[in-house]
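Project standup — Tuesday

K.O.: blocked on the structure for the chain from last sprint. Re-posting the sequence here as requested.
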Amino acid sequence: MSAKIRATNRVFLLTVLFACTCANLLHIMQLTKDPVISNILLQLCLAFVPIIYLAFNREDFLKIYRKPMKPAVLLLSIPYLLLLFPGTTFINNLSLFVAKNYANMSEMKLNNYPFLAVVFATCVMPAVLEETIYRGIFFNNYKKAGIVRAAILSGLLFGLMHRNLNQFCYATYIGIMLALICESTGTIYTTMIVHFLNNFYSTTVGYKISNKMPLLFKPIKNPSTKSEFIIWGLASVICTILALLLNRLARRITGSVNQEENNESQSGHLITPSLIVGMGILAFYIAYEYIR
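H.V.: unblocked you, prediction finished:
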């Protein structure tokens, strides 16, 4: 196991401890009553440890932000996002059989705030900070043990950090797919755009419906019957396969080299005590939210 992977897992554990501690303090200080300020503070708390890590690891910082995005890749980001919608919707609705809809609960609290403030707190900051953390640091450093394993683990950590069962389920799926398109395009800016557009869609629909504002597009209809769930399930599988094919196309356009073969000689374990403890803490949070 490389020293980089061990260091990355320590960063993850410290990020979990700091973010969870700050979240509890904000709750005790009743600062969570203002959802916009709360979202901004929680994002900053989440990014605090990773930012310090990047400040002392200039090589990692440059690796994340140095490579620009080609215009053709920008055009691919929109169809890629559309191909993720069926899977996200299907997984989200499956989770609602056993979990609360935390996404809707969050959107309802934001309805009385200016739209631009809501977009900044729920779309811009997560797209920049979360992508820097999960795809920029975790995925890029885990790649030393293989692309697929790195995508799965970084996606799992992304899902766990949401700290509730509903968002954990679909965020893990999104996290894995974002890691793959990050590798295929060779730049984090692609995932930032996809992440922003994904959050912007759900935020805009929820905000405008709750405030009885006109919509430029109809929201996705959630499945409600057995037959609809079957259709959505099949659509999810097909669209996910198409998204994977789009990854291959993106790799050809950008000339990005698939590092899977290059990493085989470096393949090793990703699991360390720091990773296990950090994941255990977040799993406890999810279990506590579920049973309370």
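K.O.: great, moving the ticket to review. The longest helix spans residues 226-254. The CA atoms of residues 51 and 180 lie 23 Å apart.
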